[in-house]
Description:
The protein is an alpha+beta fold and 171 residues long. It has six helices and eight strands; from the N terminus they run βαβαββαββαααββ.
Amino acid sequence: MRIWKEEFEHAFVTSENHFLPKDMNEKKIPLLCNHCENPPCVNVCPTQATWKREDGIVMMDWHRCIGCRYCIAACPYGSRSFNWRDPRPAVAEINKTFPTRMKGVVEKCTFCDERIARGQIPACIEVCDVGAMHFGNLNDPKSEIRDILLNNFSIRRKPELTTGPEVYYIV
Length: 171
């Protein structure tokens, strides 16, 4: 939920590199919540509708959200959106096992926590037909994701903000 595409030069504003391939700045990069190590959105939520799980996933409870949008203002990545209208009519088939979002609340990516609880991978990873997206436990030094990051050059969005973004982009 809440994944969008942005041109590389807009997604990585502070990653200045004058020697990128010519078409790199125009390439669309998928963006999502960075599941920060120090998430500013958690600190400002007055109802604790946003919190960080022990495994590092930053969660959102749509039923606790009062729509104040403090979290939107606090997120330096633009990773949250506000439902000005009821999103349910736009969904072709409602999944009864997933909590229904409603008008007047904020939403964000939760790495499909309901799928993780069933031992599945997030839906975005599953449907990525080119194998460009990976998911795993960054705290496990023997995990596949750690191996991928050790063997590929990666960047993070706005790491200088000290939020500790935990989403890595392999370039």
